[in-house]
Design a protein that fits this description.
The chain is α/β, with parallel strands linked by helices. The chain has 28 helices and 23 strands. The chain starts with a strand and ends with a helix. The chain binds glutamine and zinc ion.
């Protein structure tokens, strides 16, 4: 059995690409140096895959920033404002990705969006009516030739035409269908160039096929691929799908003249069923995505071999593949020095997944005539699934099992609580507050680092933070904010901080995953049953409360966000893990309340992250448990205690009833950058929760004027009842400087006073 890898992480084992790119951006490295680092990285991972015996290795999976941007540039989808800068081609590329500010001009970056249901972000191609699509580069061909030079025969991978057209933003009057002809012609030209260079396979990544597909999409897809496949010459074409199943378009895909079809058997809930009920054409190769490209647990060989056996019986050749690009997992376990093998043996990062592919392929071949159960590779693997150290906590399991329906409901209902809270808190109309964090200045970060390295004692660390909290509160009182926060000086990251204080979590040293461009994240791992070891934030909030007579808002991260920004378990459902986390945070909420904190904010910045790609799955597969999990966190508080939540975006027009069903008392979200359409939708949906749409954008150092904020508030008042409107920035202030923060908040309070007095 042959093996295939859809794509490989390119950031480097020690994030070499990140650091060299950042040097280049600062003018500390030349273009030649950056190109050399990149070439070294590619050589390294191509040879790594070859050594592991992978049969289908991708070239052109490398990118300096993002593969969608690469495809846009390749096909000349470069908006005029970037061309006009007159930069070199690499600089123009980076200008599109990151914006440009310098002697040649000043342009913002193209928009960036989440890549399907991952935490990777792609650059949104922008097409206007004058965009002339044509093949205007040679990157895939160069990549193929480069790999060949190292003795690696590759399949050339790139974003497919359907997905490229679906992801692009159309700024003029034309739409996707107006660009099918030139785009298809350009892909055909590329195919013929590759055939001329002796390439055998091309891989078109078409993840857009796993979404809801309508008749128009089908027509678009057929139009593109009929002509593309008619002209494919000697080249074999693999259509690669991932992140789900292609239930809406399976028969169309299998009917076309593809040579290989890549299907995802990990996230594709219906993939097995589709192949079984519809069959699979015997003249095509089935690339079966069975090694998880998104999570880090070892593959369960018994299960995978069972699926392979079934697939082989369909009659077509089966190639064992990753379920998606390995871009979404860290590089290698060999960089981890702190976790013992008791833990590490359960994981497979990109490099280890290569061994899994090879081992599984051998075992699958062996199974045709022999007894796999006696094979050492098989028995060693199966031993991993008979329990893991420190992962089970019967008390936690029992507690989850004992959750009653009523635990998901807070009483009394919202309107009654709202009255009681207004009486108790005595806040003015249009109360002012912030989202939680204050500027994380050098001294704050240094204090935390020194403590982590053991250079200062707990007492020294705590004293410093208390001093910062006291100063922060004094500042907020001077400015005149109504609801005070402690500033979050003890946290570097809103998920890691809680993970570190929860049993069941473990942490890696180098397990970085690319999030966008040069930005990487290092998600913690949910290893076992999660519970709260001890109070987490209570001491900080209590101290903050002792510094002021105004209400202090406690600050927590919600269970859905904690789960979504971690590597989840595979032995229990993410729903069950989320409920465990919810119970842990619930304990913290109740402790805060018992310590006199009357307002508690539970952030759900990543609530939308795992929203299924198909609308029809939104509720049944996700929201139906995620929203109750949030309610479980706060349903035990007294009616007078006010629960806030915060989201970093306002893209919830389509799930407003679900957001209202979180049953928080107040929600703050980003609104300053988007238009006010979200507020119209809130009104239409009779949104009950009080709202704080951000009145200014904290992502920029610019200080908003009083007038500007007054105007923003007045526009909001047209849509939201005065009694429900809060005044706040659109997110936490930790990335901002102290000067602009103070100036902005002074203007925010002045603006609130002006509209109050009218
Ligand atoms: N409370 C957090 C802060 O203020 C919220 C961060 C976020 O939403 N990303 O930093
Ligand atoms: Zn935010």
């Amino acid at each position: 059995m042959k093996t295939a890898v859809i794509g490989y992480p390119r950031i480097g084992k020690n994030r070499e690409l990140k650091f060299e790119s950042e040097k280049f951006f600062k003018g500390e490295a030349t273009e030649a140096e950056l190109l050399e680092t990149a070439a070294e990285l590619r050589k390294g991972y191509l040879l790594k895959q070859k050594e592991a015996g992978i049969s289908f290795i991708s070239s052109n999976d490398f990118s300096f920033y993002d593969n969608v941007l690469d495809a846009a540039v390749l096909f000349n989808i470069i908006p005029e404002r970037y061309r006009a800068l007159g930069l070199s081609s690499l600089e123009t590329y980076f200008a599109m990705a990151r914006g440009y500010q310098g002697d040649k001009g000043n342009v913002k970056a193209l928009a960036m969006k989440k890549w399907f249901n991952t935490n990777y972000h792609y650059i949104v191609p922008e097409i206007d009516d004058d965009t002339e699509i044509k093949l205007s580069g040679n990157k895939p061909v160069e990549a193929f030739k480069e790999a060949k030079g190292y003795g690696v025969d590759t399949k050339v991978s790139l974003v497919g035409p359907f997905t490229l057209l679906k992801l692009a933003k159309y700024t003029g009057s034309k739409s996707a269908k107006d660009f099918v002809k030139p785009l298809t012609a350009s892909y055909i030209e590329l195919v013929s160039r590759l055939a001329g260079e002796g390439a055998e396979w091309i891989q078109f990544d078409e993840p857009s096929l796993v979404k809801d597909i309508d008749a128009e999409d089908k027509a678009l897809f057929n139009e593109i691929y009929q002509s593309l496949l008619d002209s494919k010459k000697s080249l074999k074409v693999l259509i690669q799908t991932y992140f789900g199943d292609i239930r809406d378009i399976y028969s169309e895909v299998t009917a076309l003249e593809f040579d290989g079809i890549g299907l995802d058997f990990i996230e594709g809930r219906k993939t097995s069923e589709l192949v079984k009920t519809n069959g699979f054409p015997s003249d095509k190769i089935l690339f079966a995505g069975l090694v998880n490209g998104k999570n880090i647990w070892r593959n369960n060989y018994a299960k995978t071999l069972d699926v392979l056996k079934e697939l082989k019986s369909l009659g077509a050749e089966v190639v064992l593949s990753t379920s998606c690009s390995l871009l979404h997992v860290p590089y290698t376990l060999s960089s981890e020095t702190k976790l013992t093998t008791d833990y590490l043996k359960h994981f497979a990062f990109a490099e280890e997944k290569l061994s899994e592919l090879s081992e599984l392929a051998k075992l699958s071949d062996f199974a045709e005539s022999g007894n796999v159960a006696a094979q050492p590779a098989f028995t060693a693997n199966q031993a991993l699934f008979h329990g893991r150290v420190d992962s089970v906590d019967e008390a936690v399991k029992a507690r989850v099992a004992a959750i009653k329906d009523s635990d998901y409901t807070r009483l009394p209902e919202f309107h009654e609580r709202e009255k009681l809270q207004k009486e108790k808190l005595g806040l003015p109309l249009f109360p002012t507050t912030t989202i939680g964090s204050f500027p994380q200045t050098q001294d704050v970060r240094q204090n935390r680092q020194k403590f982590r390295k053991g250079l200062i004692s707990v007492d020294e660390y705590t004293e410093f933070n208390k001093k910062k909290i006291a100063e922060c509160i004094k500042l907020q009182e001077e400015i005149g904010l109504d609801v005070i926060v402690h500033g979050e000086y003890e946290r570097n990251d809103m998920v890691e901080y809680f993970g570190e204080n929860l049993a069941g979590y473990i942490f890696t040293e180098k397990a970085w995953v690319q999030s966008y461009g040069t930005r990487c994240v290092k998600p913690p791992i949910i290893w076992g049953d999660v519970s709260r070891k001890n109070p987490i934030t209570v001491a900080w909030s209590k101290f903050a409360k002792s510094c002021t007579n105004k209400p202090v808002k406690g600050m927590l991260t919600g269970p859905v966000t904690i789960l979504n920004w971690s590597f989840p378990r595979e032995d229990i459902s993410i729903k069950e893990s989320t409920l465990q986390i919810a119970l842990a945070i619930r304990d913290e909420v109740l402790d805060l309340e018992a310590n006199g904190i009357d307002i508690i904010q539970i952030d759900e910045a990543a609530l939308r992250e795992k929203l299924p790609l198909r609308k029809s799955d939104w509720y049944s597969q996700y929201l139906d448990w995620a929203i109750p999990a949030f309610r479980l966190v706060h349903s035990g508080v007294k009616p007078e205690t006010q629960i806030h939540t915060h989201m970093c975006y306002s893209e919830f027009t389509d799930i407003i009833p679900a957001i209202d069903a979180m049953d928080a008392d107040v929600i703050t979200f980003e609104a300053s950058r988007s238009d006010l359409q979200i507020l119209d939708s809130l009104k239409e949906n009779n949104f009950k929760t009080e709202v704080g749409p951000g009145v200014y954008d904290i992502h920029s150092p610019r200080v908003p004027s009083v007038d500007e904020i007054v105007n923003a508030l007045n526009a909001m008042r047209d849509r939201i009842e005065d009694s429900k409107l809060w005044v706040n920035p659109d997110c936490g202030l930790k990335t901002r400087g102290e000067t602009e923060t103070k100036a902005s908040l002074i203007n925010l309070v002045k603006a609130a006073e002006i509209i109050r007095n009218k």
